[in-house]
Amino acid sequence: MPDKTILDQERFTQTHDDFYYKIYFDMLKTILSPQDKYNIYIDIKDTKSQLKVKKLHEVLCNNMYDFSRKIITKVMQVRSHEIEI
């Protein structure tokens, strides 16, 4: 979205950071399969985002009923410019 200021974050009692991780969840939940295993690497957003990444991992696992974390083994922040695809 080109202009983030038009998003009504207060209406949903969330910050833009909350919205950012919710979008990650919405995107990832549709492509994950319970028959596979995943290590998920997302770009570092800021120095304070580790708790949100931990929460994203938890919510993704709960959504897949992966309480032992055998499907989604990790969600980790990386510097995208340092990672080769």
Q: What does it look like?
A:
There is one protein chain. The protein has 85 residues and is of the alpha+beta class. The protein has one domain. The protein contains 2 helices and 2 strands. Strands 1-2 form a two-stranded parallel ribbon. Helix 1 runs parallel beside helix 2. The longest helix has 16 residues. The protein starts with 15 loop residues before the first helix and ends in a 7-residue tail after the last strand. The relative contact order is 0.18. The mean pLDDT is 85.
Number of domain modules: 1
Secondary structure tally: strands: 2
Shape: globular
Mean of residue pLDDT values: 85
End-to-end span in angstroms?
25 Å
Radius of gyration, rounded?
Answer: 14 Å
Q: In percent, how helical is the residue content?
A: 25-40%
Which H/E pattern describes the elements?
Answer: HEHE
Structural class: alpha+beta
Main sheet properties? 2 strands, parallel
Can you tell me the residue ranges where pLDDT is under 50 for at least 5 consecutive residues?
Answer: none
Strand arrangement, major sheet: 1-2
Strand fraction equals 15-25%
Q: What's the total helix number?
A: 2
